[in-house]
Structures are given as structure tokens and as C-alpha cells.
Amino acid sequence: MFKIKYLLPAFILALLLLIPAGVTADNNAANSLQIDIGGTPVSGPISKGDTIYEDRATPGPDHAGCANPDISIRAESDVARVRVGPEEDSCNIVVHALDLRANSLNADDPSAHYNIGTELGYKWKIEIIGKIVGVNSVDDLTKTTSRFTVKTATNTNSGDLFDGNNRYHSCWAKWLIPFWYYKVKKCDKSHDLDSSTYMYVDTKGTYTHTLVSAAGHSVRTRATARGNKPIDDAFRYLCTQSSKPTGSSLECDFTVTYLGYN
Fold it and tell me: 233, exposed or middle or buried, with CB in 10 Å at 0-12, 13-18, 19+?
């Protein structure tokens, strides 16, 4: 069943030599996953293999002539990886990969109960990587990363967040002769690790291609921790792209790692 129906005109040049490969993933629907295509929300639940945007145009080489709408992905820690991009033999946009976290985040650390001190807590590392990848995800063409650590007072509820630290922003582009001529044009960074209710690290990479101007694009990622939430709902991310190369996909990889009680 199609989620969104659109018919858009042919669009810009294709980027050559994006090589296909395969990816495997969980096929279960994800409760927290939200996707917008061209600013229009996709109706859920969303599963691997779903067609989430219909374009009746006939694709040319590397999907030249297909629509190339902006894509926005939001989810919580139950969604570890999602990849969205054009279908192999059509201009439709499909969910190519959807990996779900199997277990609860609740940190079971018996040693934690024997520690005392105002700065001690359950420590977590939150990281989101937004990638533009070649046809069928064989190549990472650009990567935008946001990461930080935060502590919570309990292992079941985030409560008041504290000790936000180790913020990390990265904008990376693949520069490799003779086919990949991507460069970082700009890397915008923002963060707030002082709030007790909402901490975040936000990174927006703007990328250019030396030979194909139409391959220029931007990718933004935001890793977020929210206070006073059940621990499985406390960590979430935003991952967006604008004007990606035709034929490529947006992949968002999210990890939440328990670093211990300290």
C-alpha cells in the first residue's frame, strides 16, 4: 500500500558510478519512527520494504528524472538504523533498511547501588550519524555526526539530566579520485548540555561535489536526551537531508550505549 502519492516533474542530473550492494535488516514496524517526505508526514506504522512516496516518472540512469524530495526522520532509541531511498527500478521511495533494538535500555548494574556522591549516576553515550550513501548503500558519500554523554539518576527513568559532556560534531565528505569528489562546504554546530530537561547536540553539514553541482546537499543530525521520561523514551534523534544526489539514499544510524555508573 502506498503511503503518500505524488507525481513530480523530472529533476536534475544523476551522479555517476554509485555502485549497488545489499543490506539486511529487521522487518518489524517501529513504533517511534516518523518520516516526512517533502514536508508531508508518512502514515504509520512504517516497516522495511514500505513504499512511502510514489512517483510515476520513468527513471533514467541512476534515477535521473525522478523526484528528489527532502527527507526527515525522527525516532527514539528503539530504531537503531533506517535507510530511505529510491526503489531499484522505479522512482518510488522505499524503506530499504529498518533495524530495531531488541532489548530495553534499563541498565542493570548492581555495583551502582553501593556508590554515593552528588555527581554519580548512570552514564549514557548518545550518537546519531546521518549518511548519504550510494545506490543500495555500498558507499558512504558524506557523514554528519552528533554525539554526547549524559547522566541519569536512575536506570528506569531519566529524571533530571546532569553532567552533559563530551560533545562531538563531525562533517565528513568522501574525497577520492577518480569518482568521489565531495567536499565539506560548511559545518554548522550547536548544543545545550546544561539543561536538566532537554540536552542536545546538533550538526548540519553542507556538502559540494567538484564535478557535479547537482550532487551538492546538506544533512543535519540532532541527538537528544529528555528528562523525566522512561529510560527507553528518553533518547531520540532527528536526521534530515536536502537535495541529495539522485539515486542515493539517506541512512540514519543511532546508538545509545550504557557506560556504567560513575
Answer: middle
